[in-house]
């Protein structure tokens, strides 16, 4: 069953959500998002509530505020334990409080607690974020507003405190009590060719003589029953650029990250075609065969099943491997199976055997236990002269994504990982994370459109010769220096965009001064470089977009979860997160309503919010995440197997209706 985000009580009972309003502003390849969720407590008792929602792994959430009965309460970003302590104290003293944090086990799920919601109160919760937009195979920039939060598999280990541990009732889509609206403004100095979406939108309204700006809005009646995807085609997307953003004003007492100007450099390296194609390599394909892969890719009529989409992609890749390489195919669920005891040489005979077995694959192996087969693959001895290239196909329904990402990271020096997220709601934290730490690329398959492009692009990159000795250097006026914030780049692919961030410290020169940044690398023994000259005059931005994107780039490299971030990195993660106001696993937004002097009266009461039925679950028996599954034997967060959620907080007043802290 697909789990909806939304404001929920501790017993997951409904607080009427009236509307969701999203304002999207895209400039070149950066998106700024402001999302407001409007709620009203129409009952005569105070409520304690929380809401859960998905976010893209690349989103830098930098602002959270609540407007309660017309009065704004701005949240502060604090160290996570301190934020929890403030929240606990406020609730115990009958004060309204708001807490926003990442889920402990996955960077793409957020939780927000709202304590002591008064009878008759209206609350508007607004989150703001920025993110880079990925470049698709056909030149489109892709923006996705996540709407679907799929259940995540509970493997071995303890997962208390996860906001994914929920069991709200289900209702048909037409009975959802809230509306959804979205307005998007897109601008590019190079002109906009067209905008496409998987959802009904108003006709595009172009502005400017050369269509440098456009506005679209989601058509009325959208029920937020699928991820909202925009594909934006500019007239030119491969032009290198450098943007310099002003730091905090000098009269501001702030010190550290926000004080100095920041620079965002976008390279499109002109990597030549390899003189001789790579015919070596060990290609291992890891296929998700868990029960949830039997669900459709999307809510669309006659939508392909996830397992069928994954099989179709895998068949295409198997037919495209070079003769003479080595390969193997693993299927995983609660257990795992391999086609061959060890990787075998790619011949006509072994290819045909693999194709035959792929066609017979079913989503019949239970839960999403991906860690064990990964460890088995990494334990296999390397094949001399054939570097390992790992391809992962999954819907990403894993609770502890940080654990998986860390396992891939530990083995990053011996392989590259290319990942495919299958279906709407695939975990962006898992899919992007494992590719990022192992020098590969990630793709998302949400329909047949562009699937072949994506599959072949990933394989082509895996077959490219390694680009080596990558370095970025700066040529700046005397008295000015650049401190790199982006992690050291170890992989470059032909046609790939490379974005790096730096802080500029020292004395800024006159307005007419320029600087130069140089990307150098080696391909098949030949030295290559790309230079970009840029103006050193920084531009102001009230949202400090570049600073926050730079912080997000740093955090993605260093922040490996609340439990698993190394001690040597935790201090840096905490400092950068708080300096820039960008949430991390070590921080949380906290706000206490000090506008109301009178404590909230009466015991807190809990209500459930329903989730919609997707994929025709009501008519399928047996039910398993909204899909009829054979031999279902996993421990997903499903109504039959969920444990009772326990509170993270202590010292709270008793709740009614059995809702205990």
Automatic annotation (TrEMBL):
InterPro entries, A to Z: VIT, VWF_A, vWFA_dom_sf
Domain VWFA residues, every copy: 282-463
Gene3D superfamilies, sorted: von Willebrand factor, type A domain
Start and end residues of each VIT domain: 1-131
Region (Disordered): 638-661
Record's compositionally biased regions (Polar residues): 638-647
PANTHER family named among the record's database cross-references: VON WILLEBRAND FACTOR A DOMAIN-CONTAINING PROTEIN 5A (PTHR45737:SF6)
Protein name: von Willebrand factor A domain-containing protein 5A
Organism for this UniProt entry: Leptonychotes weddellii (Weddell seal)
């Amino acid at each position: 069953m697909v789990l909806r985000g939304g404001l929920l009580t501790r017993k997951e009972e409904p607080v009427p959500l009236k509307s969701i309003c999203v304002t999207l502003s895209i400039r070149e390849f950066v998106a700024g998002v402001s999302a407001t969720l409007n709620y009203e407590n129409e009952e005569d008792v105070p409520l304690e509530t929380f809401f859960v929602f998905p976010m893209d792994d690349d989103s830098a959430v930098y602002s959270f505020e609540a407007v309660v009965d017309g009065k704004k309460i701005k949240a502060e970003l604090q160290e996570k334990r301190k934020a929890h302590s403030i929240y606990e104290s406020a609730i115990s003293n009958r004060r309204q409080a708001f807490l926003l944090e990442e889920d402990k086990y996955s960077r793409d799920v957020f939780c927000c607690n709202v304590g002591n919601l008064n009878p008759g109160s209206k609350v508007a919760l607004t989150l703001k974020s920025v993110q880079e937009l990925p470049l698709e195979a056909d030149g489109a920039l892709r923006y996705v507003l996540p709407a679907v939060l799929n259940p995540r598999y509970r493997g071995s280990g303890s997962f208390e405190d996860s906001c994914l541990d929920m069991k709200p009732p289900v209702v048909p889509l037409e009975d959802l009590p809230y509306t959804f609206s979205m307005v998007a403004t897109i601008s590019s100095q190079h002109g906009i060719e067209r905008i496409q979406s998987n959802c009904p939108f108003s006709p595009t309204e172009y502005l400017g003589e050369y269509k440098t700006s456009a506005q679209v809005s989601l058509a009325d009646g959208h029920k937020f029953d699928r991820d909202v995807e925009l594909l934006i085609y500019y007239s030119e997307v491969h032009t290198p650029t450098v943007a310099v953003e002003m730091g905090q004003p000098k009269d501001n007492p702030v010190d550290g990250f926000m004080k100095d100007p920041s620079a965002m450099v976008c390279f499109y390296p002109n990597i030549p075609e390899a003189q001789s194609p790579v015919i070596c390599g060990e290609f291992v394909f890891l296929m998700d065969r868990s029960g949830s892969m039997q669900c459709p890719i999307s809510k669309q009529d006659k939508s392909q099943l996830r397992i069928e989409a994954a099989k179709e992609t895998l068949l295409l890749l198997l037919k495209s491997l070079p003769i003479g390489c080595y390969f193997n195919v693993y299927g995983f669920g609660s257990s795992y199976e391999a086609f061959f005891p060890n990787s075998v040489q790619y011949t006509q005979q072994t290819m045909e055997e693999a194709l035959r077995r792929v066609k017979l694959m079913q989503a019949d192996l239970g839960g999403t236990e991906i860690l064990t087969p990964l460890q088995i693959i990494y334990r296999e001895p390397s094949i001399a002269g054939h570097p390992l290239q790992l391809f992962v196909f999954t819907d990403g329904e894993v609770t502890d994504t940080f654990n998986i990402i860390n396992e891939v990271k530990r083995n990053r020096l011996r392989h590259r990982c290319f990942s495919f997220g299958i279906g709407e709601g695939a975990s962006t934290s898992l899919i992007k994370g494992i590719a990022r730490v192992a020098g590969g690329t990630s793709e998302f398959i949400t329909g047949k459109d562009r699937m072949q492009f994506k599959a072949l692009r990933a394989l082509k990159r895996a077959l490219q010769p390694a680009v080596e000795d990558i370095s970025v250097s700066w040529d700046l006026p005397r008295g000015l220096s650049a401190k790199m914030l982006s992690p050291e780049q170890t992989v470059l692919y032909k046609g790939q965009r490379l974005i790096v961030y730096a802080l500029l410290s020292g004395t800024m020169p006159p307005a007419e001064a320029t600087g130069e940044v140089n990307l150098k690398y080696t391909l098949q023994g030949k030295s290559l470089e790309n230079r970009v000259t840029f103006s050193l005059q920084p531009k102001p931005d009230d949202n400090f977009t570049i600073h926050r994107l730079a912080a997000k780039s740093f955090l993605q490299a260093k922040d490996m979860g609340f439990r698993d971030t190394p001690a040597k990195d935790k201090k840096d993660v905490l400092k950068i997160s708080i300096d820039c106001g960008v949430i991390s696993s070590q921080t949380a937004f906290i706000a206490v309503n000090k506008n109301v002097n009178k404590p909230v009266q009466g015991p807190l009461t809990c209500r459930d919010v329903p989730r919609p039925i997707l994929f025709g679950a009501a008519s399928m028996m047996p039910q398993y995440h909204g899909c009829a599954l054979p031999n279902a034997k996993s421990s997903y967060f499903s109504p039959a197997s969920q444990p009772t959620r326990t509170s993270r907080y202590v010292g709270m007043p008793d709740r009614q209706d059995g809702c205990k802290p």
